[in-house]
UniProtKB/TrEMBL annotation:
<keyword id="KW-0489">Methyltransferase</keyword>
<dbReference type="InterPro" id="IPR051810">
    <property type="entry name" value="Precorrin_MeTrfase"/>
</dbReference>
<keyword id="KW-0169">Cobalamin biosynthesis</keyword>
<dbReference type="InterPro" id="IPR035996">
    <property type="entry name" value="4pyrrol_Methylase_sf"/>
</dbReference>
<dbReference type="InterPro" id="IPR006066">
    <property type="entry name" value="NO2/SO3_Rdtase_FeS/sirohaem_BS"/>
</dbReference>
<dbReference type="Pfam" id="PF00590">
    <property type="entry name" value="TP_methylase"/>
</dbReference>
<dbReference type="GO" id="GO:0032259">
    <property type="term" value="P:methylation"/>
</dbReference>
<feature type="domain" description="Nitrite/sulphite reductase 4Fe-4S">
    <location>
        <begin position="395"/>
        <end position="508"/>
    </location>
</feature>
<keyword id="KW-0479">Metal-binding</keyword>
<dbReference type="InterPro" id="IPR006067">
    <property type="entry name" value="NO2/SO3_Rdtase_4Fe4S_dom"/>
</dbReference>
<keyword id="KW-0408">Iron</keyword>
<keyword id="KW-0949">S-adenosyl-L-methionine</keyword>
<keyword id="KW-0004">4Fe-4S</keyword>
<keyword id="KW-0808">Transferase</keyword>
<protein>
    <submittedName>
        <fullName>Precorrin-3B C(17)-methyltransferase</fullName>
        <ecNumber>2.1.1.131</ecNumber>
    </submittedName>
</protein>
<dbReference type="InterPro" id="IPR000878">
    <property type="entry name" value="4pyrrol_Mease"/>
</dbReference>
<dbReference type="GO" id="GO:0030789">
    <property type="term" value="F:precorrin-3B C17-methyltransferase activity"/>
</dbReference>
């Protein structure tokens, strides 16, 4: 009769977190071998199996005993907490077998039954701290030279991994965690969130949220796992959360502006992806390859590949992209050379300056400190507007200020509505004379100044093959009423528009807006809808 070795990870400790297969495997076994505390933890699941429990440091003899019993034809369960392949018994069992010349074909059967490891069980109690690239490091230097552990901490810290420290401290090993903290602090902010979980899913469970600087002021022991956040990990309601992306896009007045799900996987939204980086280099667009890249390549060439500028790669990886629309003014359309210089300086080597289909200059800069940038640009008289689902006032140049009567109204709209967050981006076109040469009537809301009063157009469809102008809803709105009328309409859109609902659809659905009746101005053409790129 052939015996079998079942190397079982029983998870953090509670019966709900043991896998079905692990339960069955325990039942199937004739003998259970494990560290006494662990055998006690699963005692409730046993049905009369022979128990061989040993002290914690007797792993080797435990594995030898298990192999011996299996070779005698017994089904032997070797138990580990968490996963038996993570600082558990699985490797050791194989090592003992290998030493005896074991072969898969002819030797005893081995089954490794996976379990929930501490990094996962502890993470679940802390919030969602792992989420992104993470590693486990055991601080136990009984079997591993400290010089190697130290190197691994250093590497993980530098590469911005989330780190789960196993075996952080014991009665005799107290300095390792102090050293680990010192190394981590060389690469990460003292405020980096840290979670301490003791005895996850066991009776004496304790969960503590602290930070890298203060973590040693709390109780850390043999039963603790220390989870150290990466540079993006944040705290919310005492939960540690690591966002999925390194990159966040954000704009004026908003802390964060994540991409919509459908935009996420578009290439343009991922300029940092490997393929994009290669594509840029292959096309040899000199403007897209920064001088730093060139310098780094040159250094690589002269050092024969020795040179590694980890710092620059890292700062790129963790910085957020701040994006903002820049213009010389609401009515003024002329950039001065000094303003152009200021924009170029703000973009620097890593940023981009884009001229958009909406006739504005978009500035995108990797930075976590947009304030300085904003101050420098506004000091040059530039007007900055947020990008995204906000209201934008697109005024004409009022014939370079010759037809200036209505400028204050455009400025008042910019002041009151510009940047307001809305269900979808909303363009308010404002033209200073009946020529309407800046195309105000093509916008979501169009305003045309004529004979001392305003004409109002609502619900233009600004893009697509069935684009159409807005519907003329009112002629001759008195000057002092204009701002109020437009504001009321925009507020109604803000309050009652569905998320992502464009203004023309909103008008159509509502049928009336502030007393203005909707009429269908869609061209009577049958046009198949087409997605981008079709
Ligand atoms: N095989 C186990 C790890 C064994 S090493 C696993 O996969 O989880 C022992 C270390 O694991 C402990 O020092 C502690 O850091 C961690 N650990 C194991 N179980 C834990 C639990 N329930 N709560 C917190 N940490 C735990």
């Amino acid at each position: 009769m052939n015996g079998k070795l079942l190397v079982i990870g029983f998870g953090p400790g509670s019966f709900e977190h043991i896998t079905e297969r692990a339960r069955e495997a325990l039942q199937e076994s004739d003998v259970i071998i494990g560290y006494k505390t662990y055998v006690d933890l699963i005692a409730g699941l046993l049905t009369g199996q022979q128990i061989v429990s040993t002290g914690m440091t007797e792993e080797v003899s435990r594995a030898q005993e298990a192999v011996k019993l299996a070779e005698q034809g017994k089904k032997v369960a070797v138990i580990s907490s968490g996963d038996s392949g993570v600082y558990g018994m699985a490797g050791l069992v194989y090592e003992v077998l290998i030493e005896k010349g074991w072969k898969r074909e002819t030797g005893v059967e081995v089954e490794v039954v996976p379990g929930i490891s501490a990094i996962n069980s502890c993470a679940s109690l802390l919030g969602a701290p792992v989420m992104h690239d993470a590693c486990t490091i055991s601080l136990s230097d009984h079997l591993t030279p400290w010089s190697i552990i130290e190197k691994r901490i250093e590497a993980a810290a530098a590469a911005d991994f989330v780190v789960a420290l196993y075996n952080p401290k014991s009665g005799r090993r107290t300095r390792q965690i102090v050293e680990a903290q010192r190394i981590l602090l060389q690469h990460r902010s003292p405020q980096t969130p840290v979670g301490l979980v003791k005895s996850a899913y066991r009776d004496r469970q304790e969960v503590t949220i602290t930070n890298l600087q203060d973590m040693l002021e709390h109780d850390i022991g043999m039963l603790t796992t220390v989870v150290i956040g990466n540079s993006s990990t944040f705290l919310y309601e005492d939960l540690m959360i690591t966002p999925r992306g390194y990159q966040r896009k954000y704009t004026l007045g908003k802390t964060e502006q994540p991409l919509k799900p459908h935009q996420r996987l578009q290439k343009e939204a991922e300029p940092w992806a490997l393929e994009q980086t290669i594509a840029i280099k292959q096309e040899q667009k000199p403007q897209a390859v920064s001088s730093r890249d060139i310098a780094e390549q040159a250094l690589l060439a002269v050092t024969g590949g020795e040179y590694k500028n980890e710092k620059s790669i890292l700062t790129q990886a963790v910085l957020s992209i701040f994006e903002v629309a820049v213009s010389p003014g609401v009515a003024n359309k002329t950039f001065t050379p000094a303003q152009m210089m200021a924009i170029a300086e703000a973009a620097g080597e890593e940023g981009t300056i884009t001229y958009t289909p909406d006739h504005y200059v978009k500035l995108q800069v990797p930075t976590d400190n947009p304030q300085t940038l904003v101050e420098k640009l506004t000091a040059r008289g530039l007007v900055l507007s947020p990008i995204g689902e906000v209201a934008t006032v697109k005024a004409c140049d009022f014939c370079d200020g010759e037809k200036k009567d209505s400028i204050p109204y455009a400025e008042a709209l910019q002041e009151n509505l510009g940047s307001m967050e809305l269900p979808k981006e909303l363009k308010i076109g404002f033209n200073g004379c009946a020529m309407a040469c800046y195309g105000a009537v093509q916008e979501d809301i169009g305003i045309v100044y004529r004979k001392g009063a305003f004409d109002l157009f609502l619900g233009g469809k600004t893009i697509g093959r069935n684009a159409h102008p807005g519907q003329l809803v009112a002629e001759g709105i008195p000057m002092d009423q204009l701002v109020n009328v437009v504001e009321t309409i925009v507020h109604e859109y803000k309050e009652t528009g569905y998320p992502n609902e464009r203004f023309f659809k909103f008008f159509k659905r509502k049928k009336t807006l502030q007393g203005f009746q909707h009429e269908d101005v869609t061209p009577k053409l049958q046009i198949e809808p087409a997605a981008c790129g079709d």
